[in-house]
Amino acid sequence: MENKNDSITSRDVDFAQWYTDVCKKAELMDYSSVKGFIIYRPYGYRIWEEIQHYLDAKFKKLGVENVYMPLVIPESLFNKEKEHVTGFAPEVLEATLGGNQKIEDPLIIRPTSEVLFCDHYAKIISSYRDLPKKYNQWCSVVRWEKTTRPFLRGSEFLWQEGHTMFASAEEARHDALQILELYDKLGRDLLAIPFSKGRKTEKEKFAGALETYGIEALMHDGKALQAGTTHYFGDGFARHFGISYLGKDNKLSVPFQASWGVSTRLIGALIMVHGDDNGLVLPPYVAPIQVVIVPIQQKRPEVLKKAHELYDILANKGLRVKLDDSDHTPGWKYAEYEMKGVPIRLEVGPRDIENDCYNLVKRNDGQKVQTNENDLANNIENLLATIHQEMYQKALHFLKSHIVEVKTMDEVGKVGEEGGYAKAMWCGDPNCEAAVKERFQMTARCLPFDQSPHDDKCVCCGKKADKVVLFAKAY
Length: 475
Description:
Layout: H1 15-25, E1 29-31, E2 38-40, H2 42-61, E3 65-66, E4 72-74, H3 75-78, H4 82-88, E5 93-98, E6 101-109, H5 114-124, E7 133-142, E8 156-166, H6 169-191, E9 196-199, E10 211-218, E11 224-234, H7 236-240, E12 245-246, E13 252-253, E14 256-263, H8 265-274, E15 291-295, H9 301-316, E16 321-323, H10 330-339, E17 344-348, H11 350-355, E18 358-362, E19 368-371, H12 376-401, E20 403-405, H13 409-418, E21 421-426, H14 430-440, E22 443-448, E23 467-472
Parallel strand pairs: 3-7, 15-16, 15-17, 20-21
Antiparallel strand pairs: 1-2, 4-6, 5-6, 7-8, 8-14, 9-10, 9-22, 10-11, 11-14, 12-13, 17-18, 18-19, 21-23, 22-23
Helix pairs in contact: 2-6
């Protein structure tokens, strides 16, 4: 039988095709009958579930409660916040018929849920005792994209969106920054992805926000990917939607709002940051299968018996383990689980059983580690931790080696061609930001929190500059 990775395009030949090949052949997704809408297959959806489990537990520790808002927004309600509406208008999908009858107030399929939350908050916030409100929902949203790519940009995608209300601007801004740190920790501790984080420029911020902060991941091809954002809205939405409360001073006040979200884009980041020409390479703590057991000469009864015993040992330790006792050849199984990025392969054959010495094969570098049965579970747990650190450090080295300080527009362009972040000084003029985009198709990804200057002149106009910005081509 043909190995699934026989037909994977090399990353360095055609990165976009490699990505599509891996998405399909690793059975993460499939295309649906509607362009831009994908089917999340069990293996891909399980990755999202692991991300959900991690974040949901962290959110709850911060006092966040899960809710669910309607799928549709009346157009009249959606139009209440003009700047917000303008930002989403090109991507809106509307329902105009219901039961063969014209809907007088057309229904917007939610592209995001700010207006739904604000409409609800206006009904339930009336006193200072009602604050803070920390709500989050896990849902899908629809944005009618012209160009789509699985997980990275789709007409429908899965995400979480938190919408919070506070009595003070300081609390709301703190919430946005606190969640940004949590997203950064998600990258470090679960995904083995180091993020660049900072504030978005005025041009790149979210429609309706006063401040937008983001985490950016750098892909193997040197392009950036916005992996998550948090926003400080001030009291703009609250005023538009008539949200007010009676304060301790017996006066009416308007609350301040923050919002934050990550999506199934993170799956795309996992694929492109860690994958290789043989398929996925999944970090251990997010991998649906952490260990796969492959029996050798499994027709011999002692082999399958021992394989099941080892499976029970690992499963009882809480490890996500799979025993493949199908009639495929061991070689096919090796290629299959290499394609799927399973962190560790445990081989069980007659000689291994006789010698009580088993091979653990690491997916990230192919190295073999030997263990006996008694130490198996502990050795695998330690090896998973080692693999995670190795993957994180590899990605961190790649990131650091692809942040290049630049002082001229030609140097910006060179970084754009070779891949990575052009770390430039900027005067703050949006015309200079636009000039970089027009000339090199590179956008300002963020103003990093470390604003230590390496020059005093704007990379574009040469005027005095005190802002550090990361420019890059992006997905």
